[in-house]
Design goal:
The protein is α/β, with parallel strands linked by helices. It has one domain: 3-Layer(aba) Sandwich (Rossmann fold), CATH 3.40.50. Helices cover 42% and strands 17% of the residues. The protein is built from eleven helices and nine strands. The strands form two sheets. It has a six-stranded parallel beta sheet, with helices on both faces. The chain has a three-stranded antiparallel beta sheet with strand order 5-6-7. Strand 1, helix 2 and strand 2 form a beta-alpha-beta unit. Helix 2 packs across helix 11 and helix 3 crosses helix 4. It starts with a helix and ends with a helix.
């Protein structure tokens, strides 16, 4: 007569053990979302450092045609991972990981000189709240996309990189749709997931004080690095160290 309750209890305990094991699974997948006016190629050094440390690293090459498109591109990459993932976002990529990070497979978020929005905020609303240095942003002829003038790119985006590297970033940049910059966040992953933030103190694209304010609001663990907006390329070792630290803490 008592076999059924015991059997049910055993199943419940087993399910709880499996759930605990899933939560405690080590985070070995790093999914990087590049920012606007750039592409994923600048993350090569960080990727190689993390791979040598045993991580599986994938860089999302989102189209920046709309926030929804970029979130969908990120989720497609998350679906390919085996186990939990740490999402890393640079600049506009912070918008993307804030929305895409609600995926249950995401264990934590790392914002690298990034926007860290709350519900209802957009690139435009955040950027206008604390303007950074003047950037030579231009429109395409159809008026739908924005890009950073290649001649101004080194000083505005990557002042601490060798000129040839900054020039390559300028030539490989992905144009950003105005629609992506005006789109508002509807779900805020940092409210339920642990987060880390890198403030680039010499940033001319996003005001460093805005980066600090957003990180404080989110309760993120903050690291400040003296670097340009392209901190991921100019300080790859330091950025990789913080990502590794976040992955280990997200595994606890």
């Amino acid at each position: 007569m008592n076999r059924r309750p015991i059997f049910i209890t055993a199943l419940t305990l087993a399910a709880g053990t499996i759930a605990f094991a899933a939560e405690a699974a080590p985070v070995k997948n790093i999914v990087i979302v590049h920012g606007a006016l750039a592409d994923g190629s600048g993350w090569r050094k960080v990727t190689e450092i993390l791979q040598k440390r045993g991580f599986e690293v994938t860089v999302v090459q989102e189209p920046i045609t709309s926030l929804d498109d970029d979130v969908a591109a990120t989720k497609r990459i998350l679906d390919l991972q085996d186990g939990p993932s740490l999402l890393v976002g640079h600049s506009y990529g912070g918008m993307v990981i804030t929305q895409a990070g609600n995926d249950p497979a995401v264990a934590g978020l790392v914002y690298v000189a990034a926007l860290q929005p709350d519900k209802g905020e957009s690139v435009l609303s955040l950027s206008s709240s604390k303007p950074a240095g003047s950037m030579d942003i231009k429109e395409t002829k159809d008026g739908k996309y924005l890009y950073l003038d290649p001649g101004a790119f080194p000083a505005d985006f990557a002042a601490d990189l060798p000129k040839d590297e900054a020039d390559f970033l300028a030539r490989s940049q992905v144009f950003a749709s105005k629609q992506a910059f005006s789109a508002k966040i509807t779900e805020t992953a940092w409210r339920t997931k642990p987060s880390w933030s890198i403030v680039a103190t010499q940033d001319r694209a996003i005001n460093p004080d805005l980066e600090r304010d957003m990180a404080k609001r989110a309760g993120s663990e903050v690291t400040e690095i003296k670097a340009s907006h392209a901190v991921f390329a100019s300080q790859p070792q330091k950025v990789a160290d913080i990502i590794e630290k976040a992955a280990k803490k997200a595994s606890e």
